[in-house]
Amino acid sequence: MKEKIVLVHGWDPAKYNSALTDIDIVSDSVAWSKSPEYIALLQERYEVYYCNLPGFCSVPEPHKPYYSLTDFAYYLKEWKHQFCPSVRLMVGYSFGGAVLLYYKYHYEDSTPAVLISPAIKRKESLKSHFAHFASYAIPSSMKNALKGKYQEAASKYYRQGTPFLRATYDHIVRQDLSNLVPRLLQEEILFIFGELDEETPWPLVKDTIQRHGYNHLVIKDGPHSIIRTHPKELIEAIERFELQNRN
User: What is the pTM of this model?
Assistant: First the structure.
């Protein structure tokens, strides 16, 4: 019998509920449709479960203005309890890695976790830095309206979202989770980054992860989307980590 593994997806506008077709909606694995080799290799080794987050992959949006990471972590806890209470490994990609990190910290679940290109700390773009600096010269009564206009122009993640997803994205996008890393048990976590990742860059969290002795892998020439470009290397790393946690 194959061991069970849970996947938590990233923040992809193509998987917003409003962007899906009827064909997409029937598949639990729709969030991973751009990564068929990665999924096929996982399915050879594990029984794969997919935790799809509210607002994505046909999961209804909640009756709340927005979700915080606390809300997403609670959702993951309840989903796991209902659909997959006994699981060998959990894997989060990009924003899913941030949700899984926060979940591990908040609920102290001892299930081993692999965080791939996790959104722990983001690099601030030049545009964002300039906008932040310019905001000091703008009257407070105008800030919210101008902030929304800027986000709509600068970010597809914001622009293509519903009011719930826009407010959620705006609430979480600049959060720095690096202070949570030292609070997790070393043997339960594997961090995997792409060397060339510009969205969630390894150098921003390198010192924290290395200083506290966490298992980590930096894939040479890997971009943010290493689940598409380096699936075999990822699967090998996941298997090694999973076997290590059996002993």
Answer: 0.88
